[in-house]
Amino acid sequence: DIVMTQTPLSSPVTLGQPASISCRSSQSLVHSDGNTYLSWFQQRPGQPPRLLIYKISDRFSGVPDRFSGSGAGTDFTLKISRVEAEDVGVYYCTQATQFPLFGQGTKVEIK
Amino acid sequence: QVQLVQSGDEVKKPGASVKVSCKASGYTFTDYGISWVRQAPGQGLEWMGWISAHNGDTKYAQNLQGRVTMTTDTSTTTAYMELRSLRSDDTAMYYCARDRGLWLQPRLFDYWGQGALVTVSS
Question: Are the CB atoms for B113 and B97 separated by under 8 Å?
């Protein structure tokens, strides 16, 4: 099975400051079609997950540009350039081609 | 706009069955599939299975094989997930998410339902 490892598991951040979450996969996520199907989801408290980023760095419709994704192969990063109060929640990295799909989640909270 | 609206919360006794619905709108239902994902209280996300709304093909998580059935009704653009022989560790929020129409395509999960809490308790 592929293992998705997120660090840190908890990230206390100051409003207006940047935040970064790392995701490492135990195997390369490059698909046979040449794309890398690594996504990031945000789950605010009491809400369903919401797609933020797909294919490493493409922002989904309506996602603020303070969210950005980067990486390649087995190492990926989600960055929030300036954290806002509404960004509090759990963030999951997800690969779309092998099971299990989801990372264990990183909790972002305000200091 | 794409919307997935799920049925309400349920309380069931151990051994019973539950059937959760997911009404889709705002897109061509049969061009996509639906995956079901559950989340136990305070835990992470667990993929349960997938169904193609085009042809009804299904794939289930190995640990749920034999207890779960996913179906669709294209006339009402609704997907259903039935889980049988419920146990206390099936207590979770159950989500539907729009997915690819073909199994061999990478998973999508671009739109999610609001969730349905299933509580299993004697």
Answer: yes
CB contact under 8 Å between B110 and A50, yes or no, is no
Residue A91 touches partner B, C-beta closer than 8 Å: no
* DSSP states of B4-45: EEE---EEE-TT--EEEEEEEESS-GGGSEEEEEEE-TT---
* SS3 call for A63: coil
- C-alpha span between B33 and B72 (Å, rounded): 9
Question: Rounded distance, CA B32 to CA B108, Å?
Answer: 10
Write the pLDDT tens digit of every residue in A5-50: 999 999 999 999 999 999 999 999 998 999 999 999 999 999 999 9
Select the residue of B44, B97, B106 nearest A37 (Cβ to Cβ): B106
